[in-house]
Write a structure and sequence with these properties.
about 280 residues; alpha/beta; four-stranded parallel β-sheet; two-stranded parallel ribbon; 13 helices
């Protein structure tokens, strides 16, 4: 049987597979991967995996946090890792919209915004982050995707995208490249539907448990965690995350959006504990 790989970012893979199993969906040779994991798998199978170590999303946020603490001026008042996480999502969102010449595209687009000074600080953080990755022999998921686009060949697998989780341009380019342009886009209900043959006693009446619906246990646990960790006075973070989720494109719009969001709301100073903790390098 040919392998099937469902590709989606921000998807709770365990809950999706659980729901599909409850509906008697055949899950043999079925996998769920993020675009970064798909890129890594393709590079492993063709024997061209980079020597750099892949960093996880939480490591990326922490690395950017340490960089922002070292940048004087605009980011001097950054207050928490949650603030850094939101900014990480914004930077990644812009990078994923550029299929080629990532650094050049960002440096051309952001200075055209309404707040060039703020966007200049954002570019400074980005440049330091890329330099730190190269210095420490690290690579994030976006770097892996670009390596797979350059070096990996097509996979002997069926690649599937979900309509509910539309990919960014760079992610879709990866799926198209690794599938030879032959991939499917389906809905959650279509993907979870039991097969026509051999389904005696299939529980097709069980509703699909969407991992991101408000009444879902996984969503409630995640919401509780986020509310517990959220910084008290970080309104600009939610605005910035919303802009990226709503499909802000790279160009003058991105420069204006990032500058406006970051530049109009006061950022609280970090606590004395945070200051001492990071100064001591623990």
């Amino acid at each position: 049987m040919r392998e099937t790989i469902l590709v989606a970012s921000t998807l709770n893979a365990s809950e999706l597979i659980r729901s599909m199993a409850l509906r008697r969906k055949n899950l043999f040779a079925f996998r769920v991967m993020s675009p970064g994991k798909l890129a890594e798998t393709a590079l492993i199978r063709c024997g061209k995996l980079p020597t750099q170590r892949r960093i996880q999303p939480d490591e990326q946020s922490f690395l950017l946090y340490r960089i922002m603490l070292d940048v004087s001026g605009f980011f001097a008042g950054i207050s928490s890792l949650q603030d850094a996480n939101n900014l990480t999502n914004a930077i990644n969102g812009m990078r994923l919209r550029l299929e080629a010449d990532e650094a050049g595209g960002l440096h051309r687009a952001l200075p055209q915004g309404e707040f060039p000074d703020k966007n200049k600080a954002l570019l400074d953080v980005y440049d330091r982050y890329i330099a730190k990755l190269q210095q420490d022999g690290l690579m994030d998921d976006i770097g892996l995707i670009r390596c797979a686009l350059a070096d990996a060949g097509a996979l002997d697998a069926e690649l599937v995208l979900l309509r509910e989780f539309p990919p960014a341009p760079l992610e879709q380019a990866l799926v198209s490249h690794l599938s030879g342009g032959r991939f499917r886009t389906v809905s959650l209900q279509e993907q979870a539907a039991p097969q026509a043959e051999g389904n005696a006693g299939s529980r097709s009446d069980i509703p699909l448990r969407d991992p991101w619906q408000g009444n879902h246990p996984a969503h409630n646990r995640l919401a509780t965690k986020r509310n517990h960790r959220k910084s008290a006075a970080s309104e600009w973070n939610s605005k910035l995350e919303s802009d990226i989720q709503n499909g802000t494109t790279v160009g003058t719009t991105v420069g204006t959006t990032v500058g406006t969001t970051v530049g109009t709301t006061a950022v609280p100073e970090r606590s004395q504990f945070q200051h001492e903790w990071f100064q001591n390098g623990t």
